[in-house]
Amino acid sequence: MSPPIYVTRPSLAPLDEYLPYLESIWESGVMTHNGPLVQRLEKDLCAYLDVPNVVCVANGTCALQLAMRALGLAGEVITTPFTFIATANIIAWERCRPIFVDVDPDTWNLDPNRIEERVTADTVAILPVHVFSAPCDTAGIQAIADRHGLRVIYDAAHAMAVNVGGCSVLRRGDVSAVSFHATKLFNTAEGGACVTDDDELAERIRRMRFFGFDARKDIVDSGMNAKMTEVHAGLGLANLARLDEVRENRREKYELYRALLSAREDITFQGYAPGEYNYSYMPVVFESEALLLRVMDALAKEEVYPRRYFYPALNTVGVFEPQPELPVAERIARTVLCLPLYDTLARGDIERIAKLILSV
Ligand code: T4K
Fold first, then answer.
1. Which of 77, 114, 230, 324 has a CA-to-CA distance to 248 between 20 and 30 Å?
2. What pTM did the predictor assign?
3. pLDDT tens sequence across 48-63
4. Beta-ladder partners of 338
């Protein structure tokens, strides 16, 4: 029997492309505190994304938290229930109230048509997610934010290397919070970043990730420790050099799955505009949860382990205050399955997985 296949594997540059960065750390002894590799990674990411400010941090959750803190948010924050738990957790950790609004049945992202009915005098921000890298309706969301004087923070954990209208989607809203976790298209093992066009906000986040120190080590803000280390930044530099190749590799595999699975009418795919996707996940929606469970059983017998990202919908999770039913998000959450997708996954394995799914 072939070895087990999990939902993902990290995209890693060859080890010999990472070693020179480690050697430079060994030589300098500088391991952290905004060292030369973190500074270089930030500069290279600004150039790659064509954005003015990238502030690298310890993980994507910290990026969301720092964005909320730096904007001084206190009150209700409108968000999507179809996301990873980190999105809503951080709203609650920042002592704000997550208000879940239903999603669009095609893109599975926060539906702008449903936001305004939940805006109250206490609403301070909208926190949408570009789920599985499909861009939100950023123009629609911004129009609502402008009408009501709200901030917009994008949870862009999945949205590295996605352009909309020739420009990185990370430039939309006040801040985008990206994740560089091992399971993401671009990874630094653990890591993340805040991306913003606002220079002053970027400086504030920079201070807040480093206890509130400014560049002279004067204490000018309240802050925490959310720094990225040199070891992580070096891995990021090695991986960044191959990011386009990794994205292209995944695009081919995504399209192979899609071509094979299109034979089944009871499977649907996420909606996105051509080119505006990074193919970091292979999510499919089944006609029913019963069918999804049968497919999972059949795959598990062959030691293939897809994942139910993101089940259950967060409006149904007891840790947040009771929320109304959100039928679209709840249906998608019940019936979506992310199939294995990573750059070292063989095409033959994709054909085998698709065949198993078609046979159920
Ligand atoms: N917002 C959104 C929308 C997010 O999806 C996330 C994170 C965040 C915010 C927060 O960003 P971070 O603070 O994490 O930077 C993963 C990740 O931990 C998490 O980053 C990610 N989203 C979430 C969707 O999934 P799991 O539960 O999939 O991890 P695990 O250990 O089950 O790994 C899945 C598969 O990946 C394994 O079967 C094998 C492979 N794997 C995993 C790791 C960690 C490896 O091959 N090597 C590894 O080191 O959480």
1. 230
2. 0.98
3. 999 999 999 999 999 9
4. 283, 307
